[in-house]
């Protein structure tokens, strides 16, 4: 119910690390479990931030001590940082059915006080340098030789309204050249260039020389009125980057994201332009910078697969034909298991219209699927034994050497049993065979994606890693819920609610889950008990907030649930007759589209054209595979929901 969602949000407000100050570490971004001062792990990732669409525009970010810029100053003064109001979630339009229907996809606020930025000390490796392979001289020298204004701020992938704000605000803090004054600029003056989609295929030098001309650049200073010369939203898909060209621009670099944030523009990836960039098409420059940035911050952490199919690695393999290669290399045992997998449910709910990164709105719905047979009975038993102990008595609590009372859905709730951090770390770093088997089969089932662990640390914390709270994050959650345990509605994570100072946002921007070409946030869950009679209850519940309807999934040994992470859901506690805990193991993943849609992440091969076409037609990605047929539509996802039951007979 909507109220319920409000309560969930309310219960969390102020308790996130990025919302409530330093004592709130326990809830921050813990799509995962972690140790913390509150000694509680959280099933939900960004539940606290899950408030209402009406707040979606307000990031409430203030600048000041400990402000959020994640400047990673390079030796040449570049900074790696980012995000953008362009991709900032906007209020979600209501879907069918009316009602308040607030979808909690929008990030309510992105308070950043307390986030400490890595210092711009020389110890930090130069992000610009890693992008280009070496610390190259900046573009200034070659540019001035060409008669192009040496000092420029080149904004790529920013929406027109963002550029308007920047043009308005920047002159107050930096000497910005007047509109059209670019050949060459006055000494010390910065020219401000907004790059349109049409300009992405120009080299940096070409873009600068054509800036203000009919080629589509938005000019300096006040270019807001230039009609079709304003940066088009299409450029956002390539990524949001600010190139700092020349010493004057680079002086501003370390501060730029702070400024953008102060002005209400979500930061972006900021990098020094190098001489090498001068002759590269901007699209390529953006892709290379984003690749380097993703590598530097380890944003893409491919799951471990069987050796034969390890081509899932985001960095591995030639671009072409990888998908086929992965299928060919499928272990015959995995292929045999996959041939017997049954899709019991493929469903859509929680629908509405959401802003796309292109500036328009798209139809959206979240999805859940239930698969039986993805792991064998022997593998299920092996995994349960690995997570507990061989021969463990499952009528009693889980063994305390692997489990602790440390798992919560909401701050303040009593904790339930969760896996200890070292076990969670082992699941990622040294997974037992059943985990590798499941991951390999999922990778085979979804060849269009590179399956990665959610980079929980990078998403949760200020870049640079640990803050002062000694929080250990994990991309796995173990649940052993008992009768009477508190279980609350939550979402696991949502790409619209990642903190703005996180390198994830700098690279991928803000977007609603399922945006084409952007990583899909997916949770994978497996039920592990040997048996689970009906009377034990403990179903997983899924909610369509707008209609207050939903669906449930009964635990069954080895059953796997896939859900898009922004869908509200909860465990229901086992009944009194359940003799022991109900075990589930949960993966929090990001599925990175292989085609990349200009993302420049360099993964794998092309998507299956049929699949890609279907997605394009739908306007979004989904874990429900087209070959499974149309998903069952529930609540707001059912276009017939809310039609009049009684239609008066037509008078003749
Ligand atoms: O075990 C379940 O039914 C759901 C668990 C869950 O929602 C989580 O761990 O985030
Ligand atoms: Fe969850």
List the helices and strands and how they pair.
Blueprint: H1 2-12, H2 17-20, E1 41-42, H3 127-132, H4 140-145, E2 152-156, H5 160-169, E3 191-195, H6 204-210, E4 241-245, H7 247-262, E5 269-272, H8 275-278, H9 282-296, E6 301-302, H10 322-328, H11 332-339, E7 342-355, E8 361-372, H12 377-387, E9 403-408, E10 416-419, H13 421-429, H14 433-445, E11 449-453, H15 456-460, E12 476-481, H16 503-508, E13 520-527, E14 540-544, E15 549-553, E16 560-564, E17 569-571, E18 582-593, H17 609-618, E19 632-633
Parallel strand pairs: 1-9, 2-3, 4-5, 7-19
Antiparallel strand pairs: 2-4, 6-11, 7-8, 8-16, 9-10, 10-12, 11-18, 12-18, 13-16, 13-18, 14-15, 14-17
Helix pairs in contact: 11-14
Bound molecules: 2-oxoglutaric acid and fe (ii) ion (FE2).
Fe (ii) ion binds at residues 43-44, 490, 492, 569.
């Amino acid at each position: 119910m909507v109220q319920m969602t409000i309560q969930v949000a309310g219960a969390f407000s102020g308790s996130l690390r990025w919302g409530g100050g330093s004592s709130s570490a326990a809830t921050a971004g813990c799509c995962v479990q972690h140790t913390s001062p509150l000694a509680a792990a959280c099933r939900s990732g960004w539940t606290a931030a899950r408030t209402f669409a009406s707040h979606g525009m307000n990031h409430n970010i203030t600048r000041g001590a400990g402000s959020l810029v994640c400047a990673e100053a390079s030796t040449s003064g570049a900074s790696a940082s980012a995000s953008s109001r362009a991709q900032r979630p906007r209020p979600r339009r209501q879907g069918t059915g009316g009602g308040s229907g607030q979808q909690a996809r929008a990030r309510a606020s992105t308070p950043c006080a307390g986030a400490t930025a890595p210092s711009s000390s020389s110890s930090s490796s130069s992000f610009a340098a890693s992008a280009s392979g070496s610390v190259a001289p900046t573009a200034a020298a070659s540019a001035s030789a060409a008669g192009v204004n040496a000092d420029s701020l080149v904004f790529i992938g920013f929406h027109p309204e963002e550029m308007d704000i920047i043009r308005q605000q920047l002159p107050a803090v930096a000497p910005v050249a007047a509109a059209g004054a670019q050949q060459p600029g006055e000494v010390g003056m910065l020219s401000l260039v907004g790059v349109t989609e049409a300009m992405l295929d120009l080299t940096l030098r070409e873009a600068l020389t054509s800036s203000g001309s009919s080629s589509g650049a938005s000019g300096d200073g006040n270019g807001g009125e230039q009609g079709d010369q304003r940066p088009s939203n299409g450029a956002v898909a390539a990524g949001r980057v600010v190139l700092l060209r020349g010493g004057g621009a680079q002086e501003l670099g370390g501060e730029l994201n702070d400024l953008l944030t102060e002005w209400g523009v979500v930061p972006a990836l900021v990098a020094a332009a190098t001489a090498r960039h001068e002759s590269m098409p901007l699209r390529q420059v953006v892709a290379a910078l984003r690749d380097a940035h993703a590598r530097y911050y380890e944003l893409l952490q491919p799951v471990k697969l069987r050796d034969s199919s390890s081509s899932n690695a985001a960095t591995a393999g030639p671009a072409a034909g990888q998908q086929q290669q992965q299928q060919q290399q499928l272990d015959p045992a995995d292929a045999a298991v996959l041939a017997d997998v049954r899709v019991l449910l493929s469903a859509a709910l929680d629908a509405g219209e959401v802003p796309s990164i292109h500036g328009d709105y798209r139809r959206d719905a979240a999805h859940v699927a239930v698969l039986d047979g993805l792991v064998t009975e022997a593998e299920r038993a092996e995994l349960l034994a690995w997570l507990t102990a061989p021969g463990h008595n499952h009528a009693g609590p889980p063994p305390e050497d692997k489990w602790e009372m440390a798992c919560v859905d909401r701050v303040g709730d009593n904790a339930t049993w969760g896996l200890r951090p070292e076990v969670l770390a082992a699941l990622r770093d040294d997974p037992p065979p059943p985990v590798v088997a499941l991951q390999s089969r999922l990778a085979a089932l979804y060849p269009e994606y590179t399956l990665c662990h959610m980079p929980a640390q990078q998403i949760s914390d200020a870049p640079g890693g640990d803050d002062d709270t000694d929080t250990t994050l994990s991309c796995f959650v173990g649940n052993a819920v008992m009768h009477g345990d508190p279980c609350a509605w939550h979402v696991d994570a949502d790409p619209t609610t990642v903190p703005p100072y996180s390198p994830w946002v700098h690279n991928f921007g803000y977007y609603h889950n399922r945006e084409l070409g952007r990583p899909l946030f997916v949770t994978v869950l497996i039920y592990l008990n040997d048996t689970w009679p009906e009377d034990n209850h403990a179903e997983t519940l899924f909610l369509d907030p707008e209609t207050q309807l939903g669906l449930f999934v009964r635990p069954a040994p080895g059953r796997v649930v896939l859900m898009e992470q922004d869908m509200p859901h909860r465990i229901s506690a086992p009944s009194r007759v359940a003799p022991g805990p109900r075990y589930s193991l949960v993966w929090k993943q990001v599925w990175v589209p292989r085609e990349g849609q200009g993302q420049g992440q360099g993964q794998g091969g092309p998507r299956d054209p049929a699949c890609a076409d279907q997605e394009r037609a739908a306007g979004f990605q989904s874990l429900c595979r087209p070959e499974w047929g149309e998903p069952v539509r529930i609540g707001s996802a059912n276009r017939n929901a809310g039609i009049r039951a009684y239609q008066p007979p037509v008078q003749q």
